[in-house]
């Protein structure tokens, strides 16, 4: 189940890349910029600009969750069963199905299209999500196929998966982009819904077998304390990670929460001050590890 | 003390105050305050014509040039090192009364041109116009038409034909090698041979060669006038540095262009005289010179000999840039719609291959880029030739200049263009020396490709006629080809064929109009000076219009709106013939209603696959539209039998002339701008990012079509810091994909929108329009909007996803 394949990705690993977004994630981070990535099942996403208020969606909806008036279209998300009938009925793509089952070959073919750009930029393919390790039965043959085609492959992961599964994937990876949201287990649980224990131990496995970039989505008053950033940096250093990327919070996910009707807590997250981010950068540099911001 | 050279720039860019024939903010004036029309050339030219009646035409033109060059006022400003202009004041505008007096009359009579001339000037212009009535090219041309050509010659919206300037690049290498004196010697030797042999065309050759000698002598005399003026000013100058500067000018102008230049300053001065005399002899455009190839050796020698420092050379170049911007042209109201924001389309070429295939980059290449950065001027636009041997350092510096938002360097790909030139039968050695002049026009320096962009064909209008059997639905008049009833079409092929039949109908007429005009130019506007500075004319004893470089690198017809045609045919194929979601009847009704009451039909057409997304379904049809349109044009030939061809230099016509094209089946509404260039997707329809755009563009075969233009819009942050290397790799990939052209607007839409609201704050904001850059505030609101509507690449990628 894939929800997007984005070409010319330039923030998900080195060079120009194509990023394959898997749908479904075990974490529920408040700052998630792609809330539509969380559920495993396909769902509808609204594009108001394309709506001509023709009423085809309302007519098609068996749950009577959609009303269309001259002012616009309203979806009652409590009633919506995500049956997707409306997406099929809409002639304009104003209700779009998000998430589709693709074959390994289709994904690999699409990923290979920009090979010339990968070659010239040192780029490749990044498998991201959601959480790719949440769909091991699809991930493993995909990674195998991408490697067979001699592409540079990166896995962008929360690291929340069984170590056996991680072990199985590692031979087909050139690079792992691992998110570490917090070094403190209690705080990590509070904000993501899961423990960080398994993530940190998987990090050690990944570091042994692939190049590792540690990524920290930086949320003000959640994980941007000097103490947390410093212990993240020391951990990354211990693992011999190539670099840490600080990704300051941005509001990219807010509009999507309205488009998907997902109750979404990111409205409460906030962006750290630029000066503070610079100070954190200095601190990380001080531990002897390379750091980049928003990249 | 450092000069503030940039403050000397005079801005002569034409504002596009009209769209088509519709007024748009005319009160703003067509030119900035202080800019005036210069009528000295017209006055002297007219006097000379009255004196020389009865002499051979080629000699009359040479004598007219002599009259102008010896009689017009000249000036040297107190900071100049490179001198000369095609008009008598820095603020003057040039126009060719001998070509067409109507345009200039229309401009000065209209509200928008009110400030260009005072009452006395208006009176004199009126008198001069009286002489040219029936004598200018446009009048003679209209007299010549028989049949229906006159009817189609007037702009109706399907094609545009103009008496537009010729471009072309003199043989600077030869001029620098032997000087104009050497050319005169050559002509005189040929005259002596002629007298000995007396061939059948003895008189024709003799008249031409005699005119050449007169014209070249006149140019030498023109330079000597500047030498004398500089010498006189030096005598009067108080400061020793001024004396020194003026004496250097006097010395340079005494020597060049008569003799070979010895220093960089002399080489630049020689070039600049030739450049401006091209205008004075005959309305012209462009520069085209391979700047680093020609001037690099002079720079290097000066540096080695210690005659100049790098900083001094940089200053000299900046001073030359000011002089480039002192050249300006009058544009007709119609052309100002097409060429909004243009000054005189001067482009220079840097980089690329030498004759043996090696890279020619030298220190001058970098100096040109540094000058561009420092001057931030509209002209000259810089064309960078790219090939596999282009050094990383040059691409990195190029990215820095593009990052400033100037819109240039514009990139041309040797990997795509050399095979095209080969197809056009250009010998490999000449092909490797190609240069860009004007917008994206390909030229062979020094060769007889005296040529013009004579018009543009508006392809979506051809499709419109194909969907209306060539009949005007309002008047019932049969205007285009009588093609079959579209309601009987059973496949997209039927649509394509009817469209091509309309292209054939209209392009055929355009071609005949152009060929007749070329014949008239040959008879009434010979160019003895320009012929003399080309390879072959003196040798053959033939003026440049009487023979042609044996290739299609000649006249061009601008291709307008091709992507909209492709997306339209794709949408018809998908929605009507494959998915059968609507009938042709319904579609035609929706189009004729400009989608009103048919928004659901429009959405269906918008939802169909679109060019620019690396989607083979849409891209295959787009390539077919390009290839087959080019094939139809090639069925017609110029006067010498060379097949006609298109050109990607859309100028701002994609906006300006779209006004007269009704709704198109791709979802475009009546009057909306077309896609902004031959390779550009329709605004906002490319949704898969900048790599997918290039992959789509790469499917259009340059060799089977023409040279192209592709605009990309990037955010400034995409070229900064770590991202610069990614951008350079993007350019390398563009090169490898074999796409002939790309250029970048690097600006965010917030800035552009702010500039619309607060023009005063953004007087300096430059954007790339088509093959040229313009001040954003000079463009009409509609053209501004169409630039904002270009898809901003990497918008979604400006932030990393957060998980």
What are the salient characteristics of this protein?
heterodimer; A: alpha/beta; two-stranded antiparallel ribbon; 12 strands; 21% strand; globular; B: 803 residues; six-stranded mixed β-sheet
Short description:
The complex is a heterodimer of chains A (295) and B (803). Chain A has 295 residues and is of the alpha/beta class.
The largest sheet of chain A, given as strand count, sense and whether it forms a barrel, is: 8 strands, mixed
Number of strands of chain B: 19
- Residue share in β-strands of chain B: 5-15%
Percentage of residues assigned to helices of chain B: 40-55%
How would you sum up the global shape of chain A? globular
Radius of gyration of chain A: 20 Å
Continuous helix count of chain B: 30
Strand adjacency order, main sheet of chain A: 1-2-7-8-9-10-11-12
**In terms of per-residue confidence, which ranges of chain B show pLDDT below 50 for 5 or more consecutive residues?**
none
Largest interface (CB within 8 Å) is between: A-B, 47 and 34 residues
Total helices of chain A: the number is 11
For the largest beta-sheet of chain B, the strand count, sense and barrel status come to: 6 strands, mixed
- The largest sheet of chain B has its strands arranged as 7-8-9-16-15-19
Overall geometry of chain B comes to globular
Rg calculated over all Cα atoms of chain B = 26 Å
Explain the layout of strands and helices.
The complex is a heterodimer of chains A (295) and B (803).
Chain A: E1 2-9, E2 17-22, E3 43-46, H1 56-60, E4 66-69, E5 72-75, H2 85-89, E6 95-98, H3 104-112, H4 115-121, E7 124-128, H5 136-148, E8 153-157, H6 163-169, E9 175-179, H7 185-192, H8 197-209, E10 211-218, H9 226-238, E11 243-248, H10 254-260, H11 274-286, E12 291-293
Parallel strand pairs in A: 2-7, 7-8, 8-9, 9-10, 10-11, 11-12
Antiparallel strand pairs in A: 1-2, 3-6, 4-5
Chain B: E1 18-19, E2 22-23, E3 36-37, H1 40-52, H2 57-71, E4 92-93, H3 101-109, H4 119-132, H5 137-144, H6 149-153, E5 159-161, E6 166-167, H7 172-197, H8 202-236, H9 240-255, H10 264-281, H11 291-305, H12 310-326, H13 333-338, E7 347-351, H14 363-375, E8 381-386, H15 392-403, E9 410-413, H16 414-423, H17 428-431, E10 435-437, E11 441-443, E12 451-458, H18 459-466, H19 492-524, H20 528-532, H21 537-540, E13 556-560, H22 562-578, H23 584-592, H24 599-607, H25 616-634, E14 646-647, H26 653-656, H27 689-697, E15 711-714, H28 723-736, E16 741-746, H29 749-757, E17 766-768, E18 773-775, H30 781-788, E19 792-793
Parallel strand pairs in B: 3-4, 7-8, 8-9, 12-13, 13-14, 15-16, 15-19
Antiparallel strand pairs in B: 1-2, 5-12, 6-12, 9-16, 10-11, 17-18
């Amino acid at each position: 189940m894939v929800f997007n394949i984005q070409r010319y990705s330039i923030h998900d690993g080195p060079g120009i890349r194509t990023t394959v977004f898997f749908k479904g994630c075990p974490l529920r981070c408040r700052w998630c910029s792609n809330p539509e990535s969380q559920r495993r099942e396909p769902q509808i996403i609204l594009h108001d600009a394309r709506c001509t208020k023709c009423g085809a969606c309302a007519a098609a909806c068996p749950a009577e969750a959609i009303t269309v008036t001259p002012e616009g279209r309203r979806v009652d998300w409590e009633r919506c069963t995500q049956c997707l009938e409306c997406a099929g009925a809409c002639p304009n793509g104003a209700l779009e199905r998000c998430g589709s089952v693709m074959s390994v070959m289709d994904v690999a073919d699409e990923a290979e299209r920009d090979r010339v750009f990968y070659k010239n930029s040192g780029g490749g393919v990044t498998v991201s999500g959601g959480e790719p390790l949440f769909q091991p039965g699809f991930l493993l043959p995909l990674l195998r196929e991408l490697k067979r085609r001699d592409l540079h492959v990166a896995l962008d992961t929360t690291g929340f998966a069984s170590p056996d599964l991680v072990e199985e994937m590692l031979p087909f990876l050139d690079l792992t982009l691992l998110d570490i949201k917090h070094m403190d287990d209690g705080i990590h649980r509070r904000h993501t819904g899961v423990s960080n224990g398994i993530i940190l131990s998987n990090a050690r496995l990944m570091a042994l077998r692939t190049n590792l970039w540690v990524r920290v989505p930086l949320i003000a008053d959640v994980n941007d304390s000097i103490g947390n950033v410093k212990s993240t940096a020391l951990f990354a250093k211990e693992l011999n990670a190539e670099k840490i990327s600080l990704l300051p919070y941005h509001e990219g996910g807010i509009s999507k929460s309205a488009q998907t009707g997902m109750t979404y807590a990111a409205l409460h997250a906030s962006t750290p001050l630029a000066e503070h981010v610079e100070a954190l950068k200095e601190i990380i540099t001080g531990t002897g590890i390379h750091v980049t911001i928003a990249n | 003390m450092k000069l503030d050279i940039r403050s000397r720039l005079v801005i002569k860019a034409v504002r596009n105050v009209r769209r088509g024939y519709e007024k748009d903010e005319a009160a703003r004036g067509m030119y900035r305050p202080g800019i005036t029309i210069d009528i000295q050339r017209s006055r002297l030219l007219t006097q000379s014509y009255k004196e020389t009646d009865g002499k051979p035409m080629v000699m009359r033109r040479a004598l007219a040039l002599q009259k102008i060059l010896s009689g017009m006022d000249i000036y040297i400003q107190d900071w100049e090192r490179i001198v000369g202009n095609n008009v008598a004041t820095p603020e003057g505008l040039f126009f060719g009364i001998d070509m067409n007096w109507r345009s200039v009359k229309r401009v000065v009579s209209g509200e928008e041109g009110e400030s260009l001339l005072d009452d006395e000037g208006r009176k004199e212009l009126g008198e001069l116009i009286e002489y040219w009535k029936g004598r200018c090219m446009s009048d003679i041309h209209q007299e010549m038409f028989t049949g229906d050509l006159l009817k189609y010659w007037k702009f109706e919206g399907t094609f545009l034909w103009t008496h537009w300037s010729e471009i072309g690049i003199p043989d600077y290498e030869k001029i620098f090698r032997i000087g104009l004196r050497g050319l005169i010697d050559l002509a005189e030797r040929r005259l002596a041979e002629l007298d000995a042999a007396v061939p059948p065309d003895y008189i024709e050759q003799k008249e031409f060669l005699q005119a050449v000698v007169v014209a070249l002598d006149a140019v030498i005399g023109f330079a000597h006038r500047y030498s004398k003026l500089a010498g006189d000013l030096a005598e009067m100058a108080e400061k020793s540095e001024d004396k020194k500067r003026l004496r250097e000018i006097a010395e340079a102008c005494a020597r060049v262009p008569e003799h070979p230049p010895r220093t960089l300053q002399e080489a630049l001065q020689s070039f600049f005289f030739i450049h401006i005399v091209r205008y004075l002899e005959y309305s012209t455009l462009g520069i085209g010179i391979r700047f680093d190839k020609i001037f690099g050796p002079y720079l290097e020698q000066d540096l080695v000999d210690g005659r100049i420092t790098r900083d001094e050379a940089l200053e000299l170049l900046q001073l030359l840039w000011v002089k480039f911007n002192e050249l300006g042209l009058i544009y007709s109201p119609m052309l100002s719609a097409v060429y909004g924001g243009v000054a005189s389309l001067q482009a220079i070429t840097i980089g690329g291959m030498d004759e043996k295939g090696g890279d020619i980059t030298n220190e001058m290449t970098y100096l040109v880029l540094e000058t561009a950065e420092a001057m931030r001027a509209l002209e000259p636009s810089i064309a960078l030739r790219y090939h596999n041997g282009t050094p990383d350092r040059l691409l990195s510096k190029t990215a820095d200049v593009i990052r400033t938002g100037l819109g240039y360097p514009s990139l041309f790909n040797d990997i795509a263009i050399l095979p095209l030139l080969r197809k056009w039968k250009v010998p490999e050695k000449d092909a490797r020396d190609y240069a860009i002049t004007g917008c994206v026009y390909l030229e062979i320096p020094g060769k007889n490709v005296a040529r013009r962009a004579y018009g543009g064909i508006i392809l979506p209008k051809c499709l419109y006629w194909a969907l209306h059997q060539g009949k005007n639905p309002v008047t019932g008049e049969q205007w285009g080809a009588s093609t079959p009833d579209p309601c009987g079409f059973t496949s997209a092929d039927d649509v394509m064929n009817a469209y091509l039949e309309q292209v054939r109908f209209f392009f055929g007429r355009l071609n005949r109009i152009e060929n007749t005009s070329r014949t008239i130019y040959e008879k009434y506007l010979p160019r003895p000076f320009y012929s003399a500075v080309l390879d072959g004319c003196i040798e053959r004893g033939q003026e440049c219009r009487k023979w042609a470089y044996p290739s299609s690198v000649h006249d061009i017809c601008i291709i307008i709106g091709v992507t909209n045609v492709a997306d339209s045919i794709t949408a018809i194929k998908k929605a009507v013939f494959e998915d059968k979601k609507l009938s042709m009847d319904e579609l035609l009704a929706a189009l004729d209603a400009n989608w009103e009451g048919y928004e659901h039909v429009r959405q269906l057409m918008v939802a169909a696959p679109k060019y620019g997304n690396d989607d083979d379904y849409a891209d295959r049809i787009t390539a077919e539209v390009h290839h087959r349109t080019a094939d139809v044009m090639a069925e017609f030939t110029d006067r010498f039998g060379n097949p006609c061809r298109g050109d990607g230099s859309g100028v701002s016509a994609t906006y300006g002339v779209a006004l007269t094209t009704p709704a198109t089946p791709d979802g475009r509404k009546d009057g909306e701008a077309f896609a902004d260039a031959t390779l550009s997707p329709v605004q906002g329809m490319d949704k898969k990012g900048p790599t997918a755009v290039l992959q789509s563009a790469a499917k259009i075969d340059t060799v089977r079509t023409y040279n192209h233009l592709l605009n990309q819009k990037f955010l400034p942050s995409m070229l900064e810091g770590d991202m610069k290397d990614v951008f350079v790799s993007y350019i390398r990939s563009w090169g490898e994909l074999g796409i002939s052209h790309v250029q970048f607007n690097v600006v965010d839409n917030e800035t552009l929108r702010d500039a619309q609201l607060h023009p005063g704050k953004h007087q300096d904001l430059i954007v790339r329009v088509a093959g040229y850059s313009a001040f954003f505030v000079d463009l009409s609101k509609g053209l501004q909007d169409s630039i904002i509507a270009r898809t901003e690449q990497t918008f979604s990628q400006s932030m990393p996803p957060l998980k």
